[in-house]
Amino acid sequence: MTVLLSGILFSNNIKFIYAEEIEPLSTERLYINFVFNSYIDIEFKAKSENVTSIKSEITSIVQLLNALTDNFNTTISPYEEYANVFDINNSFSDVLIDDILFDIFTLASEINIYTNEYYNIGIGKIIDNYKNLIANRFQYEINDSEYQNAKQKSLEVDITETKYVLFEEDNKKYISLKSDTLLDLGSIAKGYAVDEIKKILSKYEVTDYFIDGGSSSMAIGNYTRTENGYASLGLSSPYLFNKNYKNYPQIAEYANITIRNKSIATSNYGQQYGYYKNNIVSHIISPKTKEPVNNMQSVTLIGDDACLLDAFSTAIYTMTLEEALVFSKKILQDYNIETLILDNNLRVHHEFSSDSNYNLVVNVTEISENQFSNWFKNNFFYIIIVVIIIVMICLYLKDFFKSRKSKSIVSNNDDDNESETPGEDI
Predict the structure, then answer these.
(1) What residues pair up with 42 in beta bridges, in sequence order?
(2) Number of neighbours of residue 246 by Cβ within 10 angstroms
(3) What angle is formed at CA 126 by the lines to CA 122 and CA 130, rounded to 5 degrees?
(4) Which domains, and CATH codes, for the chain?
């Protein structure tokens, strides 16, 4: 135990104002794998007496949320009393749900309206159509018949009206699906979990923390591992330049940012993609076109509410660049959410508040250099062949024009000789 003494010196005597006992904080880490098809990794500093409770409560809420939002399996012990997304998707009657799922569905409905339906959790069938396609042809060329089949099945899915209804009856909460809708909470569940973790840390007065939700959803407190309490993050975006389908796209940090006491979320195609006619087929689907979108390289949002950031970043990614820039101004004004967009020309667009408390360093030049370097290495053999062909053509043309010039000189000499021939005397 450490005792902090604070005092003032009077005439060589120390007058103690107070004496406070401060317990040293314990640096802890909690890693939870196989949740939300990803992981949750948390570093924090807390009083030793609270560490066990903090880890237990965080683990419980994360596992509960993972079970409730799972759309592939029914809930299992100890959560079998709860209906989850899988159960809801496989029932066309009213389903009793708990407060957490009701809250998530309510929030998703509000976001759907706010984003002009660019955010839609009711497109699970369409998502599955293309995810299955990508899973079968991960990083390889998708043939035309496969893509057209997935596209046709997706276009037949009706999402023109609200596909689920939430209601309360006798102090119980229900959800009812319409037609054959499949719900998918993958674009909001992780952010919701990050917010719940922040609540638990706040309850135990933990201010020093770093929450990593699978690299796409994060929250940073007062990060005391650095001198100024700011955490430095690299914002990475995959982009395609070479056409070697057996390799990952190059991953480059297009910007670095130092933040604290903020949440941050990113949407891009990451490593869930395939190729169709040399174009990226993303796992992110537009509710408007019912097809994969790749209108920009990456979207990163910074704010206080990780759940909103998670959902809004997905919605923005499905917009056109022009719509995304307009929407960025809107959420800055309404929610104080700040936006970073890397477009397909590797330009960075940002919408920040005037009192932002972090630094942004854009590395676009480095990306361009890396891109050229990788292209050069991947095409070196072909470049050499082209250079050899050009050299041979140049040598041929040189000899050709030299030969033409020689013939021209000979011809001129012949003409001169003829003009100098003496005429006959008459």
Answers:
(1) 30, 211
(2) 6
(3) 145
(4) 215-268+286-399 (3.10.520)
Say what the pLDDT of residue 426 is.
37
Query: What is the pTM (predicted TM-score) of this model?
Result: 0.79
How far lies 250's CA from each of 111, 132, 190, 247, 367, in Å? 33, 24, 26, 9, 10
Buried b (16+ CB within 10 A) or exposed e, 317-338: bbbebeebbebbeebbeebebb
Sole residue written with tokens 């929407």: 327
Tell me which range, 16-20, 224-228, 337-341, is most confidently predicted by mean pLDDT.
Answer: 337-341
User: Distance of alpha carbon 417 from its chain centroid, rounded?
Assistant: 82
pLDDT digit string, tens, across residues 367-404 = 444 455 555 566 777 788 888 898 888 888 877 777 76
Q: For residues 315 and 312, what is the distance between their CA atoms, to the nearest angstrom?
A: 5
For residue 385, give the amino acid letter. I
Query: What's the CA gap between 426 and 406, in Å, rounded?
Result: 39
Burial class (CB in 10 A: 0-12, 13-18, 19+), 223: buried
Q: Where are the alpha helices (DSSP H) in 168-301?
A: 189-203
**How does residue 312 score in pLDDT terms, banded at 50, 70 and 90?**
very high
- Cα separation, 404 vs 400, in Å, equals 6
Q: Predicted confidence band at 3 (pLDDT cuts at 50, 70, 90)? A: very low
Name 320's Cβ contacts closer than 8 Å, sequence gap at least 6. Answer: 295
pLDDT (tens digit, 9 = 90+) per residue, 122-167? Answer: 999 999 999 888 875 555 688 899 899 999 999 998 887 667 899 9
Joined tokens for residue 183: 């719900």
Q: How far apart are CA 34 and CA 42, in angstroms?
A: 15
Strands of 260-311 (E only): list them.
Answer: 262-267, 273-276, 279-282, 296-303
The one-letter code for the residue type at 171 is N
- Chain Cα centroid distance, residue 410: 72
Place of tokens 């317990």: 23
Residue 412 has pLDDT above 70, yes or no: no
Cβ within 8 Å of residue 365, ≥6 positions away: none
* Partners of 304 in the β-ladder: none
Closest CA to 324 of 346, 305, 342, 302: 342
**pLDDT (mean) for 248-267:** 82
Q: Which residue, 351, 348, 373, 352, is CA-closest to 362?
A: 348
Q: What is the pLDDT of residues 198-226, one digit of tens each?
A: 999 999 999 999 999 998 999 999 988 88
